[in-house]
Request: fold
Amino acid sequence: MPVINVHVMAGYPPEVLARLADILSDAVQKVVPAPSEAITVMVNEVSPAGYRRGGVARSPAPALPDPRAVVEGFLEAMAARDLATAQSFLGDEFRMVFPGGVEMTRLEELIDWSKPRYATIAKRFAGWDLSQNGARTIVHCRGTLSGTWTDGSAFADIRFVDRFELEGGLIVRQDVWNDMAEAKRGSDAPKASQARA
Reply:
């Protein structure tokens, strides 16, 4: 029956405290084989007036944004082709790696790279996973892609997985995997009736 007792300076909004409690509970389950109902997390608030570190009064640091919300905001801006808003979610050293090992650092490069591949694209999300690796937060999203090829024909139900790394609340890396090449190869294959002709 693990019990976690955490003290933070007062001033964080309730949703931040709830997020902290959820993350701590998840962390316990990565180490201790305890069901969630057996894990107790208590977040205690301490007045900044009664807090000193090294004899110096401190103020609470601002909370980092919810990493999933950051990724969702970025993907929504990209879907709308609002590159200025999308850029606001990115760190200075952002880079992305797309299928085939194609590496890019600028969103405009991605737009140019995608033009000969498809005319429109949309994501439908099936799940989200978050983890921590030191100072970096890892966000995976998975689901299916739909849209139109450059010839105007439609595609749907193409699997994808995106992996994001965030540091300081900003996205610093995106890795993309999907079955678009397989789906495209299938759409280019001759139909059975054409093959017999």
User: Anything to note?
Assistant: Residues 192-197 have pLDDT under 50 and may be disordered. The chain is about 30% helix and 40% strand.
